[in-house]
Amino acid sequence: MSGENCLAGLKILDLTQFEAGPSCTEALAWMGADVVKVENPRVGDPGRVSGGKAPHDALYFLQYNANKRSMAINLKDPRGLELVKELAKNADVMIENFAPGAIERLGLGYDVIKAINPAIIFCQVKGFGTGSPYEKNLAFDMIAQACGGLMSVTGEEDGPPCKPGATIGDTGTGMLMAVSILGAYVRRLRTGQGEHLQVAMQDAILHYIRNAFAYMERTDGKAAPRAGSKTVGGGNPPIGVYPCKGGGPNDYVYIYTSAANSEHWTRLLKVMGREDLIGDARFANPAARTEHREEVDRIVSEWTIQHDKHTAMELVGSATIPAGAVLDTRELADDPTFLQRGIRQTMKHPEAGDYVMSGWPVRFGGRPPEVTPAPLLGEHGAEVLAEWLGYDAGKIADLKSNEVVV
Amino acid sequence: MSGENCLAGLKILDLTQFEAGPSCTEALAWMGADVVKVENPRVGDPGRVSGGKAPHDALYFLQYNANKRSMAINLKDPRGLELVKELAKNADVMIENFAPGAIERLGLGYDVIKAINPAIIFCQVKGFGTGSPYEKNLAFDMIAQACGGLMSVTGEEDGPPCKPGATIGDTGTGMLMAVSILGAYVRRLRTGQGEHLQVAMQDAILHYIRNAFAYMERTDGKAAPRAGSKTVGGGNPPIGVYPCKGGGPNDYVYIYTSAANSEHWTRLLKVMGREDLIGDARFANPAARTEHREEVDRIVSEWTIQHDKHTAMELVGSATIPAGAVLDTRELADDPTFLQRGIRQTMKHPEAGDYVMSGWPVRFGGRPPEVTPAPLLGEHGAEVLAEWLGYDAGKIADLKSNEVVV
Fold first, then answer.
1. What is the CATH number of domain B232-331?
2. Which H/E stretch holds residue A195?
3. How many whole angstroms from its chain centre is CA B313?
4. Which of A257, A264, B161, B309 could form a disulfide with B244, with the two C-beta atoms 3.0–4.6 Å apart?
5. Which chain B residue has its CA at the smallest distance from A323's CA?
6. Could you state, in order of their start, the residue ranges of all structural domains in chain B?
7. Which of A45, A170, A203, A251 is catalytic?
8. What's the fold here for domain A11-207+336-401?
9. A170 is catalytic
C-alpha cells in the first residue's frame, strides 16, 4: 500500500527544464511513472547549474528531478531529432516548457508528434496563454506572480508588492498540469484518445488567488488590497502575526479568530487573563473589534510578547483557537518528525553526497513515496534506448560514437 | 477533445468543507468526475456563509464547488450514517477534511469504510500529520502557512512575516491530493487495489518552498530570510519590483536579470539609454552588482518611474529581458482575454445571479473545461439516491419525510 507503483507503465518523455515542468513530472515519477528526461549534452537542464557552477548538480536541480532517468540527446543533429520522435512514438506523455515557439521550430510540435502517435498526451507549459496580450513573452516564476495578480495581494498594507516565498508560478503550475495529465491518461486508458494540454503560468496563478477575486467582487469591485499577515480584506480582529519573546525575525505567533465563531475572542481573553474585557462593548462583536482593530492588536501583542512563540501557540491552541508559530526553514529542517514521517528524506548522491530534501507530502497507506536521487546528465541513455526502443548494443554504440546520444 | 469527460464514471463521495478539500474535488469534477457533496442539512458547508450571511451562497463557496452535486444528509440520525455507508459502498473515492478524529468519531473512519468497500480510495486532509508534534491541532490556511515556513520567507527584508495572498495551505494542498487520488485511481483501474491517502497542510507547504530550503542548505545553514519582491537570497541585481508612473499601490514593474545571462544587464542599460554604464566596473558582473545593489536599484528606478508599468514591461520585455507589470485583481478581471479564452467564465446561478469565476486554467485541445454553477444545498439528493443506489420514489420520499435526507 505505497504510492510508488501507482503509475507503473506510464511512459513520460520529458523535455522540460527549471521548475514548472520538472515539478510536474517529478510528482508523477514519485507515483511510479517512468520519466525520461531529455537534456542537451553540453550542460543539460540549466537548473543543474542554478545558483552558479558547482562541482556537482545544484540542489535546486536535485530536488525537482528525483526519481527520473536522464538521457542526453543532441537536438542539433537531425539524428537526435529523429531519436526524440522514436521515443515519442513509444511514450504515453510528452511534455515541454521551452520559450514560446521553440518546440515547433525544432520540428517537434504537437502536429508532428500527433501524426506519429495520435494517442499521445502532449503537454506544454508557457508563461502566457495563446490569445493573451503577452502570449509571446518569456516568463519565469516571478514574472507570472507579478502578472497573475499574486504580488498585488502580497505584502504590507502600505508597502510595495511582495513576492511570496513559494514558487506558485512554477510548482503551482506544475501541479495543475500533473492533475490534467492524469485526467487525460484515465480517459486514454478507457478510450485510447490522445490530448493536447496547455497551461500558462499567469493563468495558473489565478487558480490560487480566487479568494482575492471573491473579495473584490463582493465588496466595491476595487482591486483586492494587500493585507500583511491578515486574510484578504483584513479578516476579523484579532488575526495575523503577533510578536513573541525573543525578538528574532520569526518570533511571531499567528492567531486566527473567526467571525463565524464568537467564542474564539472570549476564549482568547481568558487565555490572556483579560476576563475584565469580556463583554466590553468596544470588542463585543466583529464589527466593534474591526473598529478598534489597533487596540485589539495592542492587547493581544502585550500578551504574546511575554511568551516564546511555541508557548503562545500551545496556550492559544489549547483553548481551541487556531494558532501557529511562524516556523522558519531551519526550525523545520531540525524537526526530526519530518524525517521520521518521510516528508523529508535523505538522498545518497554519487557526486553531491548526502542531502536532505522534501518529497511528495501525501501519504499512501501512511507513508509518502520513496525518493531516489536525481539522475546524472545522460546517466540512463543506453538503458532507455534498450528498454523503450529495443535497440541492441551495436546500435547504441553507434549513436554514442556519433555523439547523437552522449 | 475537451477535458470534461476525462473522468467519466469516477464517483467521489465528498464530505469536505471550506477549501482544501473542495478545491481538490472541484478540480476532479472539472475533468468529469461525479462529485457528490454531502452536507449537513442546516447550513451545509460553512463556506456557504463565509464572509457573513447573505441572501445567497457566498462567492467563496460558489467558486470552490462548481460542477458538483449536493446532498443534505442528517448525520445525527443513524439512518443518515447508514446512508453515507451505502453511498461509500458505491463510491470510488471518499474524502473528508474534518477536525482531527471527527470522521472516526462519526463511525465513518477508514477501517469502517474499507470493510464495506475494500477498493475505495479513502482520503483525509488535516492541518498536521500523524506523528507531528501538532497532530491534534486545528489548522486553517493561514496556520499552515505560518507553521509550514512560508510566512518566514514572505515579506520585506526588515519587516514582519507576511501571508501570501494565495491560499497555498488550502488550494495548494488540495492540488497535491488531487494528483494523488488520480495516481491511486490509475492503479485501481489496473489492479483493483484501494488506498488510504492522507495529507497535512503543513507538510504540503514544504512542497511549495523547496527553493528556500535549497538556498538554506547551499549557504550557511541559517534559516532562509525574507527578500521582499526578490527571489530567495536576494537574487541577481537588478531583480524585483521597480516603481512606475502613476504612484498607485500596484504601479510597479517586475524586472528579472539572470546571473546566468550576462546579456540581460547590458540589454537593460541600452533600453534605459544608459550605454554610458556598459563596462562600468561597479556593475560589470553579478558580484559587482550585488555589492552596488542600492545604486543599481536607483539607476533602474530612475528609468522605470518615467514610464507606466505597461510601457515599462513592453520596453524591457522587447529586449528579451524577463519583465512583468504588477497587475491587480481589477485589471485582471477587466482583461477580456481571460473570458474569451475560458480561463474565467460567467455563471448563471438561480439565486446569486450572474457572476464571473476562474475555472480550471489548463486547456484541453485549446479550451479549459466548462464550468457549471455550484449546487444549492441538497439540490441533488433524490437524483443521487436514484442514480447511485437505485432507490425508487417511495424509498426516497420516506428518507425525505423522516428528514434523513433534506
1. 3.30.1540.10
2. strand A195-200
3. 27
4. B309
5. B143
6. 11-207+337-401, 232-331
7. A170
8. Rossmann fold (3.40.50)
9. yes
